[in-house]
Specification:
Shape: globular
Distance between the termini: 32 Å
Low-confidence stretches: none
Largest sheet: 3 strands, antiparallel
Strand content: 25-35%
Number of strands: 5
Radius of gyration: 17 Å
Mean pLDDT: 86
Helix content: 25-40%
Number of helices: 3
Strand order of the largest sheet: 3-4-5
Structural class: alpha+beta
């Protein structure tokens, strides 16, 4: 089982900056920092699984520096994001905005629905019908 923790450094759902952690010990330290006293010695870090789905990811390099990532789930949801590795967060967000403005035909306006949010919406719909 591969574990990954995405720790938000700043922003909100639509625009955020994350530190992505894959090292088990570092993930355990993050959990202990946010949930003091929580048992993180187990292989599953003492966490219960809330969702399970498969994501197929396509990643493209655009304009020589932007990662355009498209995720498709096995329950029919698709979502994408633009990533830019940078030191200056404000400058990176400005560059992403400019990039997306150059290709308005590709980027839909409005709030994106994340994979986990969509999973629970779909699951609630299938349970209630």
């Amino acid at each position: 089982m591969m574990l990954e923790a995405k720790v938000r450094i700043s922003g909100d759902f639509a625009r955020s900056t994350f530190d992505e952690i894959t090292d088990w010990k570092e993930i355990a330290a993050v959990i202990r920092r946010h949930l003091p006293g929580f048992c993180t010695r187990k292989k599953d870090l003492g966490l219960n699984q809330l969702a399970e789905f498969t994501t197929t990811r396509q990643e493209f390099l655009a304009d020589e520096k932007f990662a355009v990532v498209l995720d498709h789930t096995d329950f029919g949801h698709a979502v994408g994001e633009v990533e830019l590795m940078a030191e200056d967060e404000e400058e990176a967000h400005r560059e992403i905005d400019d990039f997306m403005a150059r290709y308005p035909w590709f980027f839909l306006k409005g709030k994106a629905e994340g994979k986990l949010e969509a999973y629970f919406r779909v699951k609630a719909t299938t349970i209630s019908t």
